[in-house]
Amino acid sequence: MKKIVPIILLLFVMGLSAQTPRAFKAGEWLKFRIHYGILNASYATLHLKTDTIKGKPVYHVVGRGKTTGFASIFFKVDDTYESYFGQDDGKPYRFIRKIDEGGYTKDIEIDFDYTKNKALLKDNKNNKQYDFTIHDQVQDLVSAAYYLRDRYDADDLVVGESIGMDMLFDDDGVYKFKLKFLGIDTIRTKFGKVECLKFRPYVQSGRVFREQESLTLWVSNDLNKIPVRIKADLAVGSIKADLDGYNGLKNQFKIIMD
Question: Which of 12, 36, 210, 252 can pair with 145 through a Cys bridge, CB separation 3.0 to 4.6 Å?
Fold first, then answer.
């Protein structure tokens, strides 16, 4: 139940595609149903829109997650993640992270300045600021998902090999994200059977995840490369997230009919 939106976003990061038709468009909306053990714990959504920052056309994606019903009695989660990234270059220009997970809170804003190769992180909760040195290939947690969907070819993936990326989304500094491709798998969903790319990302063990290889991710093997399922072993219990609804996809969502 913890880390609802970031877990979904890690799943979303696995969308790897480089086809001429873009993998997404403004208006795309995804909804996920989160199960914590036997409980239907919460829902999370991702909504992609357009905006401008200092005259530059950007995409603006908002990710929200919140516990509902019986599960909220035991652990309340209310998370919001936002990213503004270039429509032409995919670079993040602004990132917002506001979370409340059972009393564990963060309120962070990051502004990326590529002319100075610097990122200014504002910790609004603790009234602190941090300067980080960056390069033009760094991504935030949200923008990375869309960047990879548009710029990587699934046909080039090799089973057992890993992909790396530098991310900045917290005051810990630049985080070296890595995931392993496990192959192609067909799974049953509420929409029917879906052929997926299967991944194993390496995460930080500790407060949330039990081990570095606690996550397994499934992403649709089509032009959209949208997240379909995630399973994770947490420090306490386990979690499962399934795609529950979608709207405004750029390409056809391929479903295998029996």
Answer: 12
Please give the structure tokens belonging to residue 188.
Answer: 């049953």
> What 3-state DSSP class applies to 98?
strand
Which residue shows structure tokens 């300067």? 131
Cβ–Cβ under 8 Å, residues 110 and 169: yes
Q: Which residue, among 204, 205, 199, 209, has the nearest Cα to 236 in the 3D structure?
A: 209
88-105 pLDDT, tens digit per residue, is 999 999 999 999 887 889
- Judge whether 206 and 214 are in contact, CB under 8 Å: no
Looking at residue 207, its pLDDT comes to: 41
- What length does the chain have? 258
46-74 pLDDT, tens digit each: 999 999 999 999 999 999 998 876 656 56
Q: What is the DSSP string of 47-97?
A: EEEEEEETTEEEEEEEEEEEE-TTHHHH--EEEEEEEEEETTT--EEEEEE
Handedness of CA 81, 69, 208, 181 (dihedral sign): negative
Structural tokens at position 166:
């530098």
Whole-structure pTM value: 0.86
Secondary structure of residue 1 in the 3-state scheme: coil
Which 8-state DSSP code applies to residue 154?
A: G
Q: Check if the beta carbon of residue 65 is closer than 8 Å to that of residue 79.
A: yes
How do strand 227-233 and strand 238-247 relate by DSSP bridges?
antiparallel
Question: Do residues 79 and 66 touch, judged by C-beta distance below 8 A?
Answer: yes
